[in-house]
Design goal:
393 residues, alpha/beta
Length: 393
């Protein structure tokens, strides 16, 4: 029976080669270490050729790489890992917004395709947390309820605690969930999720003046068949650290879009109604007859603003009756929404800071992302796309 092949570790090989150079004699080292001369010569050649990766041996499959080949191999490995990460993120793209329980469900359903550790790391959940969840014995019905509650909570915080049960229900249904308004209300109550309530309305309009006053032509018909058919406008005050600032808005009843707005320190027409009007006509053209409705405040009734509107031959003025909140309910409703969803939720500081917040709320939230009950729970952009209209007119 043939004897077992003798093997040498890396350190032994390196020491033998170094010793052969130090003594200057291969024969002496071979004799001292009882090595085949051909073997020591081979080790010397490998030492000179491969440098730091010499003597890789069977641990690396006998593959010896140069430093350049090592870099290429690492890049290939990183590329493969990146491709796998992209694949997991792509397949799980709809799960993160639906909550942690949905992520766990995705991991459980894909354990045969990817490692649990990799999926947990990429999707941002703890591996031990997932394994504990998986070990729990939960009835299927309770599991579905937990998933729905997680989805309700996720949407509530995704939209910055601004949505109540009707809008959360619509958002869930648009994402493919089959859930009723009553069930969403029950889950929100169980989870103690409550959006800000409206505060009682306070009359702030100064309508005691001798300026122009128009009849209430709109007469609470808060609908329009096309853009720039009816605009409504109003002014509200916002308390800040330095005192008060005033927000003027102009809203198109067709799609509920804020087409013009102005934030000012004072209540002059130039900084309130005129500034908002200039933005509105810059954003949306007046092509046919337009009804412009407002309250009887002096900012709307003064000569300067009246003269500007009279220069547009197709604009008809309409004003609410004195001290009648409901005659301009849509504009007032916007202010209630603004204060409930933004102003009452943040710490008011300087004018510059609140202006950034209001710009973000109007232009990036209200006009683009918020769903509106008056538009059958669609965003303004979705509503206009369905009506084959561009984002701007």
């Amino acid at each position: 029976m043939a004897g077992k092949l003798k093997t040498y570790d890396r350190l032994f090989k390196e020491n033998a080669v170094v010793l052969s150079y130090e003594k200057g004699s291969v024969l002496q080292v071979v004799k001292d270490l009882e090595l085949p001369r051909s073997l020591l010569y081979r080790w010397r050649q490998e030492y000179l050729k491969f440098g730091d990766v010499r003597f890789c041996g069977q641990g690396n499959g006998g593959l010896r790489l140069t430093p350049e080949q090592k870099i290429i191999q690492k890049l290939k490995k990183d590329l493969k890992q990146s491709e796998k990460k992209f694949e997991i993120l792509k397949n799980a793209s709809n799960y993160p917004v639906q909550g942690r329980l949905q992520i766990f469900t995705f991991i459980e359903n894909n354990e045969k395709l990817y490692s649990i550790r990799r999926m947990c790391k990429i999707l941002g959940v703890g591996e031990m947390t997932y394994r504990r969840w998986k070990r729990q014995i939960i009835p299927e019905r309770q599991r579905k309820i937990n998933l729905l509650k997680e989805a309700v909570s996720s949407i509530f915080f995704e939209f910055k605690q601004r949505y109540g049960s009707p809008r959360i229900t619509q958002e869930l249904q648009s994402r493919g969930y089959r859930i009723s308004l009553a069930k969403v209300r029950r889950y929100m109550s169980q989870l103690s999720l409550r959006c800000k309530r409206k505060k009682r309305f306070k009359i702030t309009t100064n309508s005691y003046h001798n300026n122009f006053v128009a009849s209430n032509i709109l007469n609470r018909r808060f609908t329009a068949d096309e853009p720039s058919q009816v605009w409504v406008s109003d002014i509200t005050y916002i308390k800040i650290k330095e005192g008060f600032i005033y927000l003027t808005i102009i809203l198109d009843l067709f799609d509920r879009k804020i087409v013009g707005w102005s934030l000012s320190n004072g209540m002059s027409a130039e900084r309130t109604t005129i500034a908002a009007w200039e933005m509105a006509v810059g954003n949306r053209k007046i092509t046919n007859q337009l009804i412009f409705h407002s309250d009887r405040g002096v900012q709307y009734a003064n000569k300067s603003f009246t003269k500007i509107l009279e220069s547009y031959k197709t604009v008809t003025r309409s004003m609410s009756r004195k001290a009648n909140y409901y005659d301009n309910a849509v504009a007032e409703s916007f202010f209630n929404t603004l204060k409930r969803e933004l102003i009452y939720r943040i710490q008011i500081r300087s004018k510059e800071e609140i202006k950034v917040e209001i710009f973000e709320f109007i232009e990036n939230w209200y006009n683009k992302k918020r769903i509106h009950s008056s538009l059958h729970y669609k965003t303004i952009e979705e509503f206009n796309e369905e009506n084959n209209l561009k984002k701007t007119f």
